[in-house]
Specification:
The structure holds two protein chains of two kinds. By secondary structure, chain A is mainly alpha-helical. Chain A is built from nine helices and two strands; from the N terminus they run ααααββααααα. The two termini of chain B are 29 Å apart. Classes of the chains: A mainly alpha, B alpha/beta. Chains A and B meet through helix 7 and helix 8 of A and helix 2, helix 3 and helix 4 of B.
């Protein structure tokens, strides 16, 4: 799982999500299948449960929003456990949770089993415009440098008695953000000088293309293929 | 030896920034092959400005610069790429110099741009990292290295281009004593024409037989390092001084 070529994983994940999103929520049996499939993949990837849960927290705001949806809406209403709910809202909320979680699990599997560097390499192989790949590469390289700089600025502020308490202090924080932006911009210029000094003419070195075995290709295709089968199968049986 | 082409020849180089601030007022300098020359001078003397003229980053408007007999001409793009392969500049902040995701890819960047590929490229990368004792860190990310290690990798990125002249901007700044020593040992073993911009007077004394003092945009002294550093009047006039307790 971890050794599969990144660009194949990206394509497979994307196809899987497309099939998932294209499925109507009323075809709920299909989603059980999808979750079983992605659950199996997660199990094969052997990602630590703690890591999965901590990364899944980004979904919390969406889940909260989805839970509100059955209470606000129009159309047909029905009673459930003494609550009066809108049928449309409930379905829409359920769709957000089911499809969102599905997409999130795919993203977690991809990011957990692939180094950030490899994901960028994969996007490059998939012919993402070179400029976007370069921007992503530099972001990856300099995110630590900039966050260290931000941390040093924070320590410097605190050392001179500044503690952000309320909205009145936002001005200081905004100025610090501005200073950080200018510093990063100037660093960008220095990096560009260093690149020119080593013969940069607008093209970054290309990594050696990995050799892809038939088995790898097959095992990657398995993910979206399973989803597609489930989609067709459940549609055939229950939608009549 | 006198008819040998000098590694670096600068004649009457002057430069003013677009905002009108003039940094160089006619610099003359000749550096022979294999020489190590320290460029000493106070802050704002024009040292970094001079360095950026050596590979055409700053276009020369007044005066001329030759690298191993080739004129640096910012308008001639073809010759400029050759010049940039010959002049290896190690910048002060290694985070500016190391921009690729891994050490190995960064060292490969220069030779790749010069057209090398495959096994030949790999060999050059390994040799350059070996020269600075960083081969085992080839697959590591630069931000996982110590500052001293990053400085050494920065030197390797330039060595990989097999430069005619190595230009170091404040090589010993921010290094702990052991890293400073290790870098000095590496630099001493390189046997390559070196131009070292520095405030670190003991470092200049240790590594370079010849020194120049750049002050107010001109070369005010040029000669044997020991003689220059022995002239306390000359040093103090140019905001330089020997560290306390240091004797020649």
């Amino acid at each position: 799982m971890h050794s599969l070529p990144a660009h194949l994983k990206i394509v497979a994940g994307l196809l899987f999500i497309i099939v998932g999103v294209a499925t109507s929520i009323s075809n709920w049996q299909a989603f059980i299948g999808y979750f079983l499939v992605i659950g199996t993949v997660l199990a094969i990837a052997k990602l630590p449960v703690k890591k999965i849960l901590s990364r899944a927290t980004v979904e919390i705001p969406f889940v909260l929003f989805a839970f509100l949806m059955p209470f606000f809406g129009t159309g047909e209403k029905f009673e459930l456990l003494g609550l009066s709910l809108y049928r449309e809202g409930l379905l829409a909320g359920a769709a957000i949770i089911a499809k969102g979680t599905l997409g999130l699990l795919v993203a977690i599997t991809l990011s957990g089993s692939t180094k950030a560097r490899e994901i960028i390499g994969g996007l490059e192989t998939l012919r993402l415009p070179a400029l976007m790949v370069q921007i992503a590469t530099f972001m990856l390289r300099y995110v630590n440098v900039v966050s260290d700089e931000m941390e040093r600025m924070k320590v410097a502020r605190q050392s001179r008695g500044f503690e952000a308490k309320g909205i009145a202090d936002w001005k200081i924080l905004a100025q610090a953000a501005g200073a950080l932006f200018i510093r990063s911009y100037e660093r960008g210029e220095r990096v560009h000088l260093a690149m020119l000094s080593r013969g940069y003419v607008g093209v970054m070195p290309v990594m050696e293309k990995p050799v892809i075995t038939k088995f790898q290709r097959f095992s990657v295709i398995a993910l979206p293929a399973c989803a597609l089968l489930i989609f067709l199968f459940t549609n055939m049986i229950w939608s009549r | 030896m006198s008819d040998e082409t000098p590694s670096l020849l600068i004649e009457g180089l002057a430069f003013a920034y677009p905002d009108g601030h003039q940094a160089l007022f006619g610099v003359n300098l000749k550096v022979s092959q294999g020489e190590c020359v320290a460029i000493l001078g106070p802050n704002g003397a024009g040292k970094t400005t001079l360095v950026l003229h050596l590979n055409g980053i700053h276009p020369t408007s007044v005066g001329k610069v030759w690298i191993a007999g080739t004129l640096v001409d910012a308008k001639d793009k073809a010759s400029l790429s050759k010049i940039r392969a010959k002049v290896g500049i190690v910048f002060q902040d290694p985070d500016d110099q190391l921009f690729m995701p891994t050490v190995g890819e960064d060292v490969a960047f220069g030779p790749y741009n010069m057209g090398l590929r495959g096994a030949e490229l790999e060999g050059i990368v390994d040799t350059a990292l070996q020269q600075v004792g960083m081969l085992e860190f080839k697959d590591r990310a630069p931000h996982h290295l110590s500052f001293g290690q990053r400085r050494r990798v920065a030197v390797a990125t330039v060595l990989a281009m097999k430069p005619e002249i190595l230009v170091l901007d404040e090589p010993s700044s921010n290094l702990d004593p052991a890293s400073r020593r290790e870098l000095a040992d590496i630099l001493r073993d390189l046997k390559i024409t070196t131009l070292m911009v520095t405030h670190d007077i003991p470092y200049a004394y240790e590594l370079c037989e010849r020194s120049i003092i750049l002050s107010g945009g001109v070369v005010v002294a040029d000669g044997d390092t020991k003689t220059i550093l022995g002239d306390s009047k000359l040093l103090s006039e140019n905001r330089l001084e020997l560290p306390v307790g240091f004797s020649l």
